[in-house]
């Protein structure tokens, strides 16, 4: 079922992008957020790593040339390194899973490309649409 949710997220993200011209923080991100909707901790952790990744990349761009594939690679590697450092420090009680490793780099890249507000709002819209379709299909998303 997890693969279907990711694929649904990709389809909705692609449709959203085609209709609006705004990227919802990458094609796979909304699906992963929908999968982890039951764990707000993971989503908050992800945005913390995004913020650190984005900030460090901004600082690095002042001393090195970051564009294209190099910028993408730096964002992914930074988010991965931050995640490893946080996990090894023993600060976390729960493991963030994949959402804390690769996804923050993708979001940080979109923040850099089209701005924080536009990227985050479009991601929120696509995640909600994804969740509505999942609930319509009968998959429990929210446990009360």
Q: What does this protein structure show overall?
A:
Keywords: Membrane, Transmembrane, Transmembrane helix. The chain crosses the membrane at residues 7-35, 41-60, 72-91, 121-142. It is a single chain. With 144 residues, the chain is an all-alpha fold. The chain has one domain. 71% of the residues lie in helices and 0% in strands. It has helices at residues 2-20, 29-35, 40-60, 68-89, 103-114, 116-136. Helix 1 (2-20) packs across helix 2 (29-35) and helix 4 (68-89) packs across helix 5. The longest helix has 22 residues, at 68-89. The radius of gyration is 15 Å and the shape is globular. The mean pLDDT is 88.
Compile the SSE list and pairings.
Elements: H1 2-20, H2 29-35, H3 40-60, H4 68-89, H5 103-114, H6 116-136
Shape: globular
Distance between the termini: 21 Å
Total number of beta strands: 0
Q: How do the SSEs run, as a string of H and E?
A: HHHHHH
Which percent range describes the beta-strand content? under 5%
Tally of discrete structural domains: 1
> Over the alpha carbons, how many angstroms does the gyration radius reach?
15 Å
Largest sheet entry: none
What structural class do the secondary elements suggest?
mainly alpha
Number of helices: 6
Helical content stands at over 70%
Could you tell me the mean pLDDT? 88
- Segments where pLDDT lies below 50 for 5+ residues? none
In a nutshell, what does this entry contain?
Helix content is 71%, strand content 0%. It is mostly helical and 144 residues long.
């Amino acid at each position: 079922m997890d693969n279907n949710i990711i694929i649904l997220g990709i389809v909705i993200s692609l449709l959203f992008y085609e209709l609006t011209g705004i990227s919802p923080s990458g094609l796979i991100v909304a699906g992963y957020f929908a999968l982890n909707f039951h764990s707000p901790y993971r989503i908050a952790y992800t945005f913390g790593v995004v913020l650190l990744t984005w900030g460090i990349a901004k600082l690095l761009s002042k001393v090195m040339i970051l564009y294209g594939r190099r910028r993408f690679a730096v964002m992914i590697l930074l988010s991965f390194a931050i995640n490893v450092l946080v996990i090894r420090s023993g600060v976390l009680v729960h493991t963030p899973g994949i959402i804390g490793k690769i996804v923050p780099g993708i979001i940080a890249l979109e923040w850099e490309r089209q701005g924080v507000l536009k990227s985050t709002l479009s991601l929120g819209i696509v995640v909600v649409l994804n969740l509505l379709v999942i609930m319509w299909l009968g998959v429990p998303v929210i446990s009360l």
